Amino acid sequence: MSGMSSLPLVLDHLPSGFMSASARTLHEVVPSPALIHLPGLQPRPVFVSVLLHGNEDVGLLALQSVLSRYEGRPLPRALSIFVGNVEAARAGVRRLEDQPDYNRIWPRSAPATPHQHMAARVMDAMREREVFLAIDLHNNSGRNPLYSCLSATGAEHLRLARMFSPLAVLIQAPQSLGAAFTPICPTVCCECGEIGNAQGVAQAAKLIERCLADDFGEGTAHDDAKALDIFQAFAMLKVAEGLTLSCDGEAADLQLPPEIESFNFQALEPGHVIATTLSHPDVEPLRAYRLDGEAMAGMLVRKGADVCLSTQAVAAMFTRDLRAIRQDCLGYLMQRVPAHAL
After folding, report:
1. Alpha-carbon dihedral of residues 247, 252, 255, 259, nearest 10 degrees?
2. Where are the beta strands (DSSP E) in the chain?
3. Which of 262, 47, 227, 244 is nearest to 134 (CA)?
4. Cβ-count burial of 40 within 10 angstroms (0-12 exposed, 13-18 middle, 19+ buried)?
């Protein structure tokens, strides 16, 4: 499995070439997953993870932007950087076929695989350093607004999310980095738009810089909740294995609407067509699952060749990226969370 070690590379300095590297060339500077600790005037570190998915370069670009502003002067707060899947980044893909998803290796119980042991070592190191807060930076594979993902709704988590975007999604994905860090410090996963989105890079850099400067503002959990439009993810949609797939009108077992990314953060009514299937009438081509992986019956219905929603839902993370769909999911279904419910 790509020579994976259960020990991340640990550095106490920024390696030469880091500031000029791209995601595709970072392996020349950092040859494996690495934890880089940089000192600051305040010792408790901000933790930033980048490249958990190899083709999502927003975190690297945002860090390079922030660090360039502190050249020759100390950081106001210590910074710990986790550099994730550099092998996938070298190939320009989310993950290699023989790898797990690097955002699904953060165990809440005893680690069982080399990747989980590596993630556990990172967690242990950050506990020892009394991590101040954690930021996980991602690009979307589909067209979405900038938004935060949260695993909890405590005051500090909400405040951190609001610093990035007025949109937030409560999504308790098992073994994600966000779910692992949430019990030990304020934590947010930032979804920074599609790859190449300059606004996403700028907003991520602004968040990192504000957190290093200790700028959390004032307020209460209720005030921050009112300032956020919060959605609860309750289902993910996955394509059945072995089926061909298209989203551009080409013949396939399952055809997705070409405009599927326009569904994101839109309210979809019962009967809304998610996909069309022209073969395998006895196969359930698109399936709904709870976030813990349990299948959900009745969420999708067949009307002739169409696969439709059976209930009202708000869509998120729907994508045309066929590789991302196969390696992860087609997208999520959500419902709005009223501020008074938090």
Report:
1. 20
2. 9-11, 34-38, 40-50, 75-83, 133-140, 147-150, 167-170, 187-194, 229-239, 245-246, 254-255, 267-268, 273-277, 286-289, 295-296, 300-303, 306-309, 313-316, 331-336
3. 47
4. middle
Phi, psi of 308 (to 5 degrees): -125, 155
Residue linked to tokens 């933790």? 47
* H helical segments located in the chain: 58-68, 86-91, 114-128, 155-164, 177-181, 198-212, 221-226, 322-327
* Contact criterion met (CB below 8 Å) for 336 and 231: yes
Parallel, antiparallel or unpaired: strands 133-140 and 300-303: unpaired
The rounded distance, in Å, linking the Cα atoms of 82 and 119 is 10
Question: For residues 299 and 161, what is the distance between their CA atoms, to the nearest angstrom?
Answer: 30
The residue among 284, 171, 206 whose CA lies nearest residue 274 is 284
Q: What is the pTM of this model?
A: 0.88
Annotate 251-272 with DSSP letters as a single string: --SEE--TTGGGGBT-EE-TT-
CA–CA distance, 219 with 228 (Å, rounded to integer): 13
Q: 168 by DSSP, 3-state: which?
A: strand
Angle CA(60)–CA(65)–CA(71) in degrees, nearest 5? 115
Helix ranges, 213-332 (H): 221-226, 322-327
Q: Tell me the per-residue pLDDT of 261-317, one tens digit each, with 9 for 90 and over.
A: 999 999 999 999 999 997 666 778 899 999 888 999 999 999 988 999 999 999 999
